[in-house]
Amino acid sequence: MENLRFRVLNADEMGTICEKCKEFLSTKGTQVDHPEVLKRLKKAGAQVDLGTKQVRLPKDVIHAALKVVPRKVTLGGHSGRKSLSVPHPDGLFYTLINTGARNYLDPETNTYQPLTMANMAEWAQLAEATDEIDCCSILTVRDVPDQTCDIYALKTVFENTTKHTILQPFSFGSVKYLFELAVAAVGGKEALKRNPLISPFVCYNSPLLLADYNAEILLQCAEHKAPISADSLPSMGATSPVTVAGTVLLACIEVLSITVLAQLLGDGTPILARPLVWGLDMSTGRSTHCNIETILSDAAAVQVFKEGFQIPAMNYAFGNDSYLPDEEAAIQGAQRGMLLTLAGADIVGAAGRMNIMSAVSPVQLMVDKGMVNIFKHAKKGARVDDETLAWKDILDTAPGNGQFLDRPHTAKHCREVLRSELFVTEPYDNWKEAGAKGLGSRAREKFFAVKETLKPLTLPEDLKREFNRIVKDADAHLIK
Prior knowledge:
- The chain is α/β, with parallel strands linked by helices.
- The chain has a domain at 67-380: Alpha-Beta Barrel (TIM Barrel).
- It has 18 helices and 20 strands.
- It has helices at residues 11-27, 35-44, 59-68, 117-129, 149-160, 174-186, 189-194, 212-224, 244-265, 292-308, 327-342, 362-380, 386-389, 391-395, 408-413, 428-433, 439-451, 461-478, and strands at 30-32, 47-49, 54-56, 73-75, 84-86, 94-97, 103-105, 112-114, 135-136, 164-167, 198-203, 209-210, 228-232, 271-275, 279-280, 287-288, 314-316, 347-351, 353-354, 359-360.
- The strands form 6 sheets. The protein has a 5-stranded parallel β-sheet with strand order 9-10-11-13-14. The protein has a 4-stranded mixed β-sheet with strand order 2-3-1-12.
- Helix 6 packs antiparallel against helix 18 (461-478) and helix 11 (327-342) packs parallel to helix 12.
- The mean pLDDT is 95.
């Protein structure tokens, strides 16, 4: 039995995109806005114009870099958490809770609130308590200084979950302190290399600009051998072509560029390719993420990196463009999640995401964690062998009045059927007597039940003091 796959591109189309990526990077290249990185890239074999900051990557340099990119990536945890091996050893996927959001959809009032440190702590505790979530991330905390809010957020994550953290540094200056927190959490720089606790995003400013702070993240990741979430964030029709094919090509050019640049800065730097595409509603100007073109673009780009370049890939399989955890949110999350997981993404993100990327919802997280199990069940496909075919049982069945309820085969396999907590299974009268609750109400009840169990980690006092010292130092140097 092979795991199910959804392929947007045929072999020729995928090959064309791979070759066009190499051709573009070798003839035109991209812009890198970081003097030190430019000098190192030039020394490593890239064609660098220090005046224009343009970096071209000859094809032999690209091919050499692709040979040393790790095919497997380790994602570490702290305080005894077992590390994750990417790709998933069973051909499935890992799940990431949502990142970056600035607002919290309050389950009590169903209204958006500016995201606080208390919300960040709760979000991390939810990640720790939810078996279906494998990795955590940081949100945009708004009751601390803007200049250091990502540093406060990561400290809070480390205090509330042991799981690996995939995160976006918010500024050039904060990168150093984020790595200091990770070093402290695992017990030293060499320990961090052995047990990489964080995977920072390195994002292009589409089209084709690697800004200074993203280049700094790239440099720090290469020096720490930290896995890089190599990101392209194009918007179809705005910062990339309006067509699926054109946007996929641009996204893959940018992600391949990060991949090669990382190897030039440090052979063997782990890469998680994350070509993440956005849409643009041309009638309103609103950004979108769950229209079918963006989903197809993301799935195609995942295919290019998984099959074309043999590099682990991640993307956002959850989340929605809806303002509430309602029917629209459920439909969008289901269509996006099913297609991206079947497309082969090794890590799928943004569980609990609402309103494109601007908010998170604990209630939506309860829905999304239920969908994780559905997607994994679908991904496994159907096993076909003598046992599952039940050939003898079918042969022994009388036409018209036979049944399988009392068969040993049924008793043996009936618990393999997924009973999703998302869906109603009791008879109508029982459901009505229990309050006739819809999915949203049941998810909200589930959250409040889980909330009663949440608590911070118990960490050594010296580690907590070191976290506080790093944050205080960051405040002193970054807040002007």
